[in-house]
Amino acid sequence: MTAFGFRPGAAGLNPAAPADPAEEVLGPDATVDLAAARARSGIDEVLSALDRELVGLVPVKTRIAEIAALLLVDRMRERFGVSAPRPTLHMCFTGNPGTGKTTVAMRMADLLHRLGYLRRGHLVSVTRDDLVGEYVGHTAPKTKEVIKRAMGGVLFIDEAYYLYKAENERDYGGEAIEILLQVMENNRDDLVVILAGYADKMGRFFSANPGMQSRVAHHISFPDYTVGELEQIAGLMIAGLGYRFSEEAKVVLRQYLNRRRDQPWFANARSVRNALERARLRHARRLLEQADAPVGLDALTTIEAVDLLASRVFETRESA
Ligand SMILES: Nc1ncnc2c1ncn2[C@@H]1O[C@H](COP(=O)(O)OP(=O)(O)OP(=O)(O)O)[C@@H](O)[C@H]1O
Ligand SMILES: [Mg+2]
User: Fold this and answer.
1) What is the distance in A from the centroid of ligand 2 to the CA of 101?
2) In sequence order, what are the residues at sequence separation of 6 or more whose Cβ sits closer than 8 angstroms to the Cβ of residue 252?
């Protein structure tokens, strides 16, 4: 029984679906062109975009490439009539804030769609409040509605451990977990659930919910970025915004990142993005303050050291 009466997943709905009933089963002596299948699937575009656009995260990228390979090889095996149950792809992403979990989950949804694993390949991102109600009878419809929206794609549950409150017996989170467990088992060919959050809290959540632990096939951890990686991320982000750093600004950026990393509320790549937004504000104000001189493209697109040095990050060290 599925958790509710909506179960698509018919292969015919998906143009990329592996099992094409019209396709003849190949004989044992036939061969298939793996390279051509790979090119047709478009996975290389996703994987190389992932490599280009996301700095670091080597273990994460490796795992994604392995999953892609597995799904492609599974499709080739099916051509010969060798069928294994579809692999379970529910995942858990652990890591500190701003380490790329949400970003990678979106890429994953796209990849799984291209490989014919997911019909739609969209991502529905939720937290406890989207799933758990406040009164009796409120939680099940809420959770089912979210699952319905996510069908054919990825259901991304951020800070998943808040679903479970050990200290509160009358909490409705348990009800949401029960429904999720059923769907993760029964609809695993049409929905991928990704649980995300901090490693230690997630560990405690799994200890208290072994059913959840056993349904998650991939535990992927997102390490904090090194200063060098944060510099590269800043470079990508600033280029994406149509700016560049002056040579002096690059030096100050490194000092900034070294200091920022040791301060409270550091959120890896998200802190870099926020710092760059503030640098843009200071850059614009600086240009307007010097508005009597003519301004060229270079001035309009160059972040200077002063735009970063005005940050509070540089004050605290001196006053400390
Ligand atoms: N490796 C990376 N390379 C380039 N940009 C990155 C990288 N990782 C994260 N970013 C950027 O940093 C920002 C934050 O990333 P994201 O939201 O994916 O982090 P998160 O792990 O989901 O954080 P949180 O736990 O706070 O939700 C996004 O703008 C994302 O594009
Ligand atoms: Mg996130």
Assistant:
1) 5
2) 305, 308, 309
55 lines ligand 1 (CB under 6 A): yes
What whole-number distance in Å separates Cα of residue 65 and Cα of residue 285? 45
Average pLDDT over residues 298-309: 97
* pLDDT tens, residue by residue, 44-91: 988 999 999 999 999 999 999 999 999 999 989 999 999 878 899 999
Whether residue 271 has its Cβ less than 6 Å from ligand 1? no
3-state secondary structure at position 157: strand
270 CB under 6 A from ligand 1? yes
C-alpha 160 – ligand 1 centre gap (Å): 18
The protein residue with its alpha carbon nearest to ligand 1, atom 3, reads: 54
Domain range 227-319, CATH class: mainly alpha
Question: Taking all residues of the chain, what is their mean pLDDT, rounded to a whole number?
Answer: 89
Residue 93 CA to ligand 2 centre (angstroms): 10
**Domain range summary for the chain, segments of one domain joined by +:** 11-222, 227-319
Residue 183's contacts (CB-CB under 8 Å, 6 or more residues apart) are: 2, 3, 147, 191, 193
pLDDT digits (tens, 9 = 90+) for 145-164: 999 999 999 999 999 999 98
51 token code pair? 């490599």
CATH architecture of 11-222: 3-Layer(aba) Sandwich (3.40)
